[in-house]
Amino acid sequence: MKVRVVLLLFALVGIVTIAGSPVHAAPSPVRSLGISPLRSELTITPGTSFDGSITLTNSGKDPLVVTLDAEAFSVTDQVYDYSFDPAGTGVDWVSFSNNSIHIQPGGASTIRYKVAVPISAEPGGRYLTILASSDPTTNTDGVTSINRVATLLYITIAGDVTRTGKVLTFDSPILTAGDATWTATLQNGGTTHFHSIYNVTVRPVFGNMLSSSEADSLILPSTIRLISQQIPHLDWIGLYRLDYTIGLGDVPAQQETRWILNVPPLQGLILLVIVAILVLLRLKPRYKKEN
Predict the structure, then answer these.
(1) 8 in a domain, yes or no?
(2) In this structure, are 180 and 90 located in the same domain?
(3) pTM for the full model?
(4) Does the CA dihedral 39-41-47-49 come out positive or negative?
(5) Tell me: the pLDDT tens digits for 141-156?
(6) Distance CA 69, CA 90 (A)
(7) Could you tell me if 200 and 141 lie in one domain?
(8) Residue 183 above 80 pLDDT?
(9) Which of 5, 55, 130, 268 has the most other CB atoms within 10 Å of its CB?
């Protein structure tokens, strides 16, 4: 029995030791390839072309052999996760001055590209990405990595295009403890993208504007995008008015007004204590009178 107990103790110690040992993850691949700009917005007339350039940089310690190609991109959900298609519409419009280059450590290279839009192209939005990929490299730990970076081309084919935004949902909190976020889903029923510029202004019940904040989101055609923005921080307990303006492309901006009660924890506790004291003071004379 004692032998079994000793063996069991050794087994438990071994399990605890293994469970408590730190797990060393494989080192992450070094991201040495960079690209700029990250995004370009272009307007091109059918039958014409656009000449642009990108700059690739190598911040690593080894030379890179970089290959360039183009893919079409779209979004898959309301938070705008991207999907890429190497055979999508417009991929064959893109050509490069050189699609395979060598970049030395600490060096940079500027590559010119052309987007040639055929005369038959219909007006509207086209969305392409230029991808730069390094040849596979293997480090001393045996980890093979490929550096891949991209610049996004938001192209409007000139003509009769529309930018028709609509607010599908709008949610503004009615209670906060100091920090809060409002959200909305925007739909673009037009034929090309637009920038939705939206802002919120905070005002007390009595008085002038306290603060405001503004943001910008790009809405692709035939998509719904979830936007969110933090409401400016409120320092004091009280009731505040929130005035919203949401840009919708060619459609007039939507105006919304909501109210929010701000109750910071410490100030709320102090207010609760004061109310409790006042209640007790009011009840005390009544208690003495009854006794």
Answers:
(1) no
(2) no
(3) 0.79
(4) negative
(5) 666 667 899 999 999 9
(6) 12
(7) no
(8) yes
(9) 130
